Amino acid sequence: MKKRELTPEEKAECAQLKSIYMRKRADLGLTQEALAEQLNMSQAGLSMYLNGRNAINLEFAFKISRLLEVSVSEFSPRIAAEIRGPSGVSKLLGAIWDGSQQQPASSILSPADIEELGGTIDVQGLPSALAQKIRDYKRIVVVPRYDVTASMGPGADVPEMNMVVENMSLDARWVRQNLTFSALENLKLISGRGDSMSPTIRNGDAVMIDIGVNTVEADAIYFFQLQGQLLIKRIQRNLDGLSIISDNAQYRDLPVPADREEDIHILAQVIYWWNGRSF
């Protein structure tokens, strides 16, 4: 059976894509062999697209646009229009999802991609894991701020009750791009008091914590309880125990032997703070 000849528009798309690849390959460190491997195809198959033998399809266009860090519209306005059309994003998801490989949805098409492409998602018929991820996506993350103050000094008494005094609304894309956390629902805001963590965290700063972290797995800043007091300090793990460290050089480090580690009750890890600002 004779292979269909590409239309002038399809040939122009291939030529434009090849031009983009030739221009960007050095900066991205992508040889044709490496690019083909990341696309999960043979080098000969990739050449068929770049040299105008095969028409660019929706799946290939999206995947190579990610690798070359360009938008699909830069080489194929036709496919970009298809993605933005009715059910376009859903068609794209159906084309590129491979449940047999158990790929996480975020590695294929993230909700941020969907938002950028301007698509409205019809999840009917999509794999359940991907459909659930899309349903759960929120453009705004609301983080509650509690009436809790942690000491960055000698210690603060544990409050009798935790009361939400306000909520902070954050752009979900900013949260996902800038913060590392266990789960969105584990993000909370408290206040810091004292100067022992200065200049890193200052007196009165709003401090974001992740209550899903309850052990010292890495050297970081933690919100914890010690001898009935709430503290925000840097904790470092050593061979013979832990060290509680203040960033302010005027405060001495506090060594905690391995057999006394249970005295420290980790409540959360500090993941972000707003210096010198109140909300």
Describe the protein's architecture and organization.
With 279 residues, the chain is an alpha+beta fold. The chain has helices at 8-28, 32-38, 43-50, 58-68, 77-84, 88-96, 111-117, 128-136, 172-178; strands at residues 140-151, 156-157, 164-171, 187-193, 206-210, 220-226, 229-238, 241-245, 254-257, 264-274. Strands 1, 2, 3, 4, 5, 6, 7, 8, 9 and 10 form a 10-stranded mixed β-sheet that branches. Helix 2 (32-38) packs across helix 3 and helix 5 packs across helix 6 (88-96). The protein starts with 7 loop residues before the first helix and ends in a 5-residue tail after the last strand.
Quick tags:
single chain; 279 residues; alpha+beta; 434 Repressor (Amino-terminal Domain); Umud Fragment, subunit A; 10-stranded mixed sheet; 31% helix; 25% strand
Main pleated sheet:
10 strands, mixed
CATH superfamily of the largest domain: Umud Fragment, subunit A
How much strand content do the residues show?
Answer: 25-35%
Poorly predicted spans: 97-112, 116-120
**What portion of residues is helical?**
25-40%
- The total strand number stands at 10
Mean pLDDT comes to 80
Distance between the termini: 69 Å
Helix-strand category: alpha+beta
Kindly identify the CATH topology of the largest domain.
Umud Fragment, subunit A
Tell me the series of helices and strands, N- to C-terminal.
Answer: HHHHHHHHEEEHEEEEEEE
> Per CATH, which architecture of the largest domain?
Ribbon
* CATH top-level class of the largest domain: Mainly Beta
The DSSP helix count reads 9
CA gyration radius, whole angstroms: 26 Å
Q: Outline, from the CA principal axes?
A: elongated
Total number of domains: 2
